[in-house]
Write a structure and sequence with these properties.
alpha+beta, 15 strands, 24% strand, elongated
Length: 346
């Protein structure tokens, strides 16, 4: 994510969209600069980046990419002295009105910290970021940097989202796990999921927008996805529509392919053995969401053949509260579903 003042958007009537990067030219140059300035002071890097801002005439793009690269750097002071302690020691001695008084205080500090006057002077602000050394820069490819920049632009726009509606082709478990973790409320309309508001009335709207922004990578990790959001720009006292999908051709990151995971060895064995039967039915793990009243069920398996579909839910966890809620959900799920129950516990 980026600070709001680095967000660049295009507006057309009631629609708004970030100005996404489509090539890697600026990213390539910035990465090379960061590599060259490894081992040098941060303030020297900043001076070079300011030159780049002037060169391209759009400081927001350069600064936004640079911020993402800075987060891949490790900084350290090249002095053994603690800059904050040295500064506090000197400030405690009060104002200096002459060169003689200044030298006297520096000598006092030299004895106290067992260092030379030159080291004391250099250490005064050594803990401040601009004086620190770029110890390590962790490389990223220009294309990946552009993708992460475009994602950050989208997330920053969603800071001011009032609501978000999305559809995905999979990755449901991760998405709903994130929805719960972020404290968001949702409604399900067929296969569309609508994030309607904060789960707590005490959460501020802006924090809610930030939570929606954090949900974005999980949505984009699905093979196919589409999002729509209402964006309120308070400075304009106006609400805009924002839309984005996996079909739009925007360069966006795709994190590691979600592996097929199972809740038990029984489920994994069933999945592998069913696939080996070659029945003509396609089997998918956690294939979709099924609306069940105000809740959703994510079936353990889905089966598909010639336009037909059927679901299988494996019930293997047993507490009275769990079973009561599970039975209620199953009764309210309007789909063709088989429930598999461990006969040893039936």
């Amino acid at each position: 994510m980026l600070p709001r003042d680095l967000l660049i958007t295009s507006k057309r009537k009631d629609n708004i969209k970030p100005r996404y990067l489509t090539d890697t030219q600026i990213a390539e140059e910035l990465i090379e600069i960061f590599k060259r300035y490894e081992g040098r002071k941060y303030k020297e890097l900043q001076e070079r980046l300011e030159e780049m801002e002037d060169l391209y005439g759009n400081y927001k793009v350069v600064r936004g990419l640079s911020l993402l690269l800075e987060r891949r750097c490790e900084f350290e002071s090249n002095l053994s002295l603690n800059g904050k302690e040295v500064r506090e020691f000197l400030l405690d001695r009060g104002f200096v009105l002459s060169e003689e008084e200044r030298n006297k205080i520096l000598e006092e500090a030299s004895k106290h910290f067992n260092a030379s006057k030159e080291e004391i002077e250099e250490a005064m602000f050594s803990d401040l970021k601009e004086e620190q050394i770029i110890r390590k820069f962790y490389y990223i490819s220009p294309l990946e940097l552009v993708k992460r920049y475009n994602l950050s632009l989208t997330q920053t726009l969603l800071f001011d989202a009032l609501e978000m509606l999305f559809t995905v082709s999979g990755n449901y478990q991760e998405i709903f796990r994130q929805i719960k973790y972020l404290g968001l409320m949702y409604e399900v309309e067929e296969e569309k999921i609508k994030i309607t508001g904060p789960a707590s009335l005490f959460k501020k709207t802006r924090k809610y927008g930030t939570s929606m922004a954090k949900l974005l990578p999980s949505i984009m990790n699905a093979d196919k996805w589409r999002i729509k959001a209402k964006i309120e720009l308070r400075k304009e006292a106006r609400i805009y529509d924002f839309e984005l999908s996996s079909y739009d051709g925007v360069l966006l990151p795709r994190y590691s392919e979600p592996a097929v995971h199972f809740d038990s060895e029984v489920e994994e064995t069933f999945y592998n053995e069913f696939k080996s039967l070659n029945t003509g039915w396609e089997i998918k793990r956690e294939p979709t969401i099924v609306k069940a009243g105000n809740y959703v069920i994510i079936p353990d398996f889905g089966f598909y053949k010639n336009g037909m579909e059927h679901y299988l839910e494996v019930v293997g966890f047993w507490t009275p509260e769990y079973l009561k809620k599970k039975i209620w959900k199953l009764k309210n799920a309007k789909v063709s579903m088989t429930v598999a129950v461990n006969e040893n516990l039936s």
